[in-house]
Amino acid sequence: MFRYTKATFSREVVMLLVALVFVFPIYILVNMSFREANDPTSLLLPTMQPTFENFVEAWEQAGLGPALLNSAIVTVTSVVLIVLISSAAAYPLARVMSRLSSTLFWIVLVGMMIPFQVALIPLYQTMRDLHLLGSLLSLILFYTGSQVPFSIFLYTGFLRTLERDYEEAAALDGAGTFRTFVSIVFPLVRPITGTVVILNAIEVWNDFLVPLLYLSGTPQQTVTVALYAFVGQFVSNWPIVFAGLVISIVPVLAVYFLMQKQIIKGFAGGLKG
Amino acid sequence: MSTTELVTTEGASARRRKFVGVAQSKTLLLLAVPALIFYAFAVVVPAVRGAGLAFTNWDGLSRTYDIVWFDNFVRIFTTQSSLDALKMTLLFAVAVTVLQNGIGLVLALGVNSGLKSQNFLRVLLFAPVVITPVVVAYLWKFLLTPNGAVNSLLGVVGLEAGAPSWLGDPFWAATSVVSMIVWQHAGYSMVIYIAGLQSIPQEINEAAAVDGAGAWRRFWSITWPMLAPATAINVMLTIIGGLKMFTEVFVLTGGGPGGSTETLSTLLYKSAFQFNEFGYGIAMALVLAVIVIIFSAAQQRMTRKGGA
């Protein structure tokens, strides 16, 4: 259909210019993080005397090391839990035809509509009573519980497109429910597990409001609240602030560029109802 | 996300083969228990409690509170600050929905038009989507400072003198919030539109071209109607996202200047955690929840009527 013509070439040039405009803020972010505070060159031009000092200072002052570790712990634990319990729940919800099963499925679907603020504030008190405020566990519990509906939704949708032949063969061979799930169903749903992992990991890693509520006033920090506190201190020292911002997004962007195909596919396909 | 579809597939497969017996289905359902426990703890129980607390004057600290019935809700709809926040929430949602999806569509059409740099463009344009919103908000805050990159750019073309105070003027602060969100998420709308475009059979376009339909005509008669499912998903995502957004406003403008960019999300956070009015804050969260549900339901309905 598409032959490469002069018109195609001009579209190509226009789109590359558009992409340049899109990348401009990120360029400014990186360029700024390498500048000295009194660098005389224009903001728009690449700095002539790049320095790593800002990164060293930001790393130490913002406590980014422990914060990155905390974010990693929360993200990995939550995503593993979400994948295990959501896929396990989706299997019976997709296969069992009883009234109980479909009622449970509807209750789960309703969870996708509720804005999380409604639950977040009353849960704050529960977390306080359980002495979980300021602990990473409070975040893991919230993310796991609140991301379950969306993940179950994706898993059941996928399971319903799969034939039951393998499960039946396993049952004939005498495999129990649990065994069938672990060795037959879980491997079969792997494609959608990829989507569930990607969407949830990005959501949890990038979240700001929940750690702001449940960790504030405590020494525990995730990356987003560490940055928030850090910028509060260094508000006018933009090069150091930007070095901190760059450090915090390097892991995300590294994963993105390594896995861009799967990530974009996950976003584009994950919500097809 | 069509719910009727789920029901019919359920019925069809039940008729097709009744493999899972009643006795077995009980043990099978046990697999759902862990997920239901987490879900109940984090969402169901707090949401139900929250719905109750919205009718009280609980300050979030004391053990006791009074039932005030609809006072919190009356206050939301009679106080200027919360009415303004309500208006701003809707305005942001509509502006983001229109602009983000419009730009996303144009980008998708551009990227998906047989370019050599197709994959490269897609990766670059989508990149802002994965960047942490807090980082994006600080980045834009700097871009928009009086000595920031936006004014430097305007200086290059000699327009610096006419530059407004981006975050100091109510109109421009709101415009900045919308621009930032559109910049961050247009790539998301784009990839959904690209997936939609790639599902349109090329033969239809070719046949129409042979029949003499121009590019404009082909877009409105073929591409746009066939993109309806992608548009439905995009509109749904942007409306819900736009209504609920918190971090972007909270970090970029803090609701300012003078409360002019306050949304329900930021105002309810402040009410609950800075002014210790939990009951009032939760009432606002509930109003927001109802608005989200109304918009989602209306959108679903319109999509179905449109035959998508």
Structure description:
The complex is a heterodimer of chains A (273) and B (308). Chain A has 13 helices and no strands. Chain A is mainly α and 273 residues long. Chain A is globular. By secondary structure, chain B is an all-alpha fold. Helix content of chain B is 73%, strand content 0%. Chain B has helices at 3-16, 22-29, 33-53, 71-78, 80-111, 118-130, 133-143, 149-156, 170-198, 202-210, 215-226, 228-244, 247-252, 264-273, 278-305. Chain B is globular, with a radius of gyration of 24 Å. The chains are: A mainly alpha (273), B mainly alpha (308).
Topology:
The complex is a heterodimer of chains A (273) and B (308).
Chain A (H helix, E strand, L loop, with lengths): L5 H28 L19 H9 L2 H32 L3 H12 L6 H13 L6 H24 L5 H8 L4 H12 L1 H17 L2 H7 L7 H11 L4 H21 L1 H10 L4
Chain B lengths: L2 H14 L5 H8 L3 H21 L17 H8 L1 H32 L6 H13 L2 H11 L5 H8 L13 H29 L3 H9 L4 H12 L1 H17 L2 H6 L11 H10 L4 H28 L3
